[in-house]
Amino acid sequence: MTQAEFDIAVFAGDGIGPEITRPTLEILRAMAAESPAYDLRFKDLPAGATLYRDTGEAFPADSLSQARAADAILLSAMGLPDVRYKDGTEISPQIDLRKELQLFAGVRPVRVSAGQASPLTLPEGREIDFVLIRESTEGLFYSQGAGTVTETEARETLLITREVSEKLFEFAFALARERKDEGRGPGRVTCVDKANVFRAFAFFREIFDAEAARHPDLEANHAYVDATALWMVQKPWDFDVLVTENMFGDILSDLGAGLMGGLGLAPSADIGLHNAVFQPCHGSAPDIAGQNVANPMAMFLSAAMMLEWLGRKHDNAALVADGARLRHAVDAVLAAGVVRTRDLGGQAATDEVGRAVVRELCAGKTQ
């Protein structure tokens, strides 16, 4: 068997970023070392608020160039609340990457499996397993940093284009079919919008319906964003794939993280036609940086998403299998309820969680 080699661009980030990146890379290196089917080569690249504070540059051109050329990008927590650009906006290389690499599909899985704690009390036999897809390059974020502000008013521009929306909806239906084939969903895509009020969202829905017509074997429906927020609390097990605008997705993805028990368990990916970034949804938590108490699970789960995406893109079954294996190992640690970081009500250290996940990976191999 020929071993496939993949270059991974790594941004360790700010605050707790380096602390959760370190055990993630250790796990990924160990998994790759065991596999005859693939190898991962990591390249550490500078970017972020700490870099900006020290050098006046947040995202060097060479870092962007190398990230663009990589097979995948693994990005940790970015930003510091007290380090900002002169206009008051935050240092956000992750948003720069989305725009520069046209990563239009922000993928936010929401999963609460058997034995996992959740603020919701799930009915007997119910689990939560849906995916929120957030358009990541335009919407209300389109004019980020370029809105107009006067003494009497402030304006930002919402942009929805047919070109990006068509790609977004094609991605959403492809994911729904993939989940259906794997037995993880019924093959249903829900367009989340506010088409009853805004012409832009009526336009968004019209493009969605045109794509839905191309997939008669899949179910398509609509929901207003406010109703969706309600249903995510009342009946989240009914959802499969949700697709929405940038700002709506930004808000709903945090609600989804709340269902899982917090941002410490919330992974994400931003995916385009050629590139993809994988990162935890949470921030850099500088108040606990350097204390070895940060929850690394969202970073582990983001790395699992990366392995699965690489495997599907390059038809490498070993990568897909290892991505699922890492995800199941994190699930097993959560379900056991013994090793929990502070945000989950425990006292476990960051590296202790990493060791627990490694033990589950080893146990899974021997079963």
UniProtKB/TrEMBL annotation:
UniProt KW keywords: Amino-acid biosynthesis, Branched-chain amino acid biosynthesis, Leucine biosynthesis, Magnesium, Manganese, Metal-binding, NAD, Oxidoreductase
Cofactor: Mg(2+); Mn(2+)
PROSITE patterns for this protein: IDH_IMDH
GO molecular function, one term: NAD binding
A Pfam family reported for this protein in Swiss-Prot or TrEMBL: Iso_dh
Quaternary data: Homodimer.
Family to which the UniProt record says this protein belongs: Belongs to the isocitrate and isopropylmalate dehydrogenases family. LeuB type 1 subfamily.
The protein's name in its UniProt record: 3-isopropylmalate dehydrogenase
